Amino acid sequence: MGVLLIKSSAEKETLQQEIFKSSKLPRDNTNEIMQQNVYRTILYGVPFRLADEYAHATKKIQYNDSRRIVGAMCNVYMNKLSHGNTTLYGINDKVKKINGRNVITSRGSFRELVSKTLSQSNDLFQEQSKLWEWYEDKDGKVHPRLDTNYFYTALEQMNDIKLFNRKLFDFNEYNGRYSLYHLPTYWSEYQLAKRILEILHGNSILKTSKDIAKLKAINYGADTEQALAISEVFDNKVSIITGGAGTGKSKTIEILANVLLDENANLSIRICSPTGIAAQNLQNRLINSPSEKVRIYFSDSINKSRTIHSLLEIKPSKSIGIIRSKFSYRKDPLIADILIIDEASMVDIYLTRSLLWALENHVHVVIVGDSNQLNSIGPGRVLYDLTNGLKRLQKKEFVSPLPKWSNLITIHRTKEDSRIPILANTLLIQNRDDRWNCFKQELERCIEKGDVRYIKAQETKEILNLTVNEYLNNHGSMENVALITTRHNQEIGRNILNQKIQSKLMKRSGFEEGVIVIQNRNDYLHGVFNGEKGIITKVIENKIIAEFIGERTVSLSKNQAEKDWLIGYAITVHKSQGTEAETVLLPIWSEPKSKIWNRSLLYTAITRSKNKLIFIGNDDALEQGVKSKEGNRLTRLPLFYREIANRYKVSKKVDN
């Protein structure tokens, strides 16, 4: 908001309503926090600028108030977490004295980001120029930095912040080096590494040999790669099975279950996924398995594939990024002998830690996913760190033991001659120019064969209109077509696409009869989970009724529906994960100074297609997307793993 001065209570009330809307807490809780310290609402999703405007409106906050500076620090750290980082490197700038001048030799420090955040409100707190110290960069440009005393005083005060009576941040100094940790992510990564190693060192309950398991898997229809991956589960306490589109990961899980039940029909096999739709898809495969014992076992409600939240009995929580489950390996473990985690690329550090914290040491853990897909929405990149991350670390220093990693590469997907998975796999080529050249060549083959249509358009408005028309021409049942875009609020984002499509289909907007909706959170009461699609069948006064796949009828008040559902003609790439459609539509466009698509987004979107793919856009935007990489996340999981593994080595030497 571009507010310069707040002159009326009406404007203050508007700001208050904006804060209520942004906060992830209920209105009453948010209001209570606002009365004490509006900057604490930043911990619950409120942007710093909005909190700053409200504070300025109250006329009770000065430019140098420590609560304000701490609020800016919280805003920077929460932004880091929202982009998937679990740690922060570079508290302060690197500065050298050159010819008597303070010259910054590095960029992107925490201090720089905090200074920029405070600078957003130069129009509100004009006297805050007194907060700055000035430094030059190598080119002679001058940059403001928060005064050293204010900066380190505020960092010390970060230690006093508590969330639900637990310390949230830890700022400390060791041997002249400063560090600032977000404790929930710090301990989640540390404890996850610790639990993996404890399970790896635990005794196995499986008796079938690796060779026998491999032979059985082949007899049940696995190819050589899949059979080898299955056999490793019997020889390793923690196994990771990765594979790209069409390599048969779900089939591998099904055959693994069959071989496990051969050994002991009374094994407790728990299978879970991060989303309801992914869990449901896997459950459908299991109860329709060619194996009678697999069908019978997973038809039992106790054994069915379910969401991670459901398995851990995690209830909707007011906490931000803190997952709490009643299960603990120390006192109340989850009953399981085998835990299989599907679609693991989508699982963040909090959920993965909670899963392994719930397991006793005898359990075999099998982690399955595609490490080339998008990372989790929450912090961390668990699947990548436990595969490529540990592999890279292994080149520098030998670490043992490691989870056993099997990577499936043979494609078996859809029609035997479909080339869409091959097109997706060209995006995995490391060199960006080679990647683009191979993608172009394979795209031509796909177009020639009829697997892909490419509708050329240059202008953003033209791409938008063509995308809407193409969707309307193709849409039938909810499973038939998926219109996938990158974000919610871009020129061809989810919101504008849904508005345009709905206006073509009906005169009114919003939740009306016949509108497709998508579930936006896990609803345990009605058994409908994040990412599932439904269709509104009735609107009666304040009640909205929708049918979800599987003959599930959900009736919500209008207010609750607005919280739980989104209009679902177009969805984001993140929301599409774990789903498939016969036809996938992708609008491909570019915006100045903004990367719309990158190769991870494209890979994930393309691999949602069962049979047909439609691009609408132009070569320049497509090339930019293919050549762009997803930003790196800063995480510590491999480093924690190495540290704890080395500690095990030392303790073994002492014991000997």
UniProtKB/TrEMBL annotation:
Classification via InterPro entries: Coronavir_polyprotein_1ab, P-loop_NTPase, UvrD-like_helicase_C
Pfam families: AAA_19 (PF13245), UvrD_C_2 (PF13538)
ATP-binding recorded as keyword: yes
Domain UvrD-like helicase C-terminal residues, every copy: 568-615
Key words of the record: ATP-binding, Nucleotide-binding
Signal peptide: none
GO molecular function: ATP binding; DNA helicase activity
Keyword Repeat: no
Domain of life: Bacteria
Protein name: UvrD-like helicase C-terminal domain-containing protein
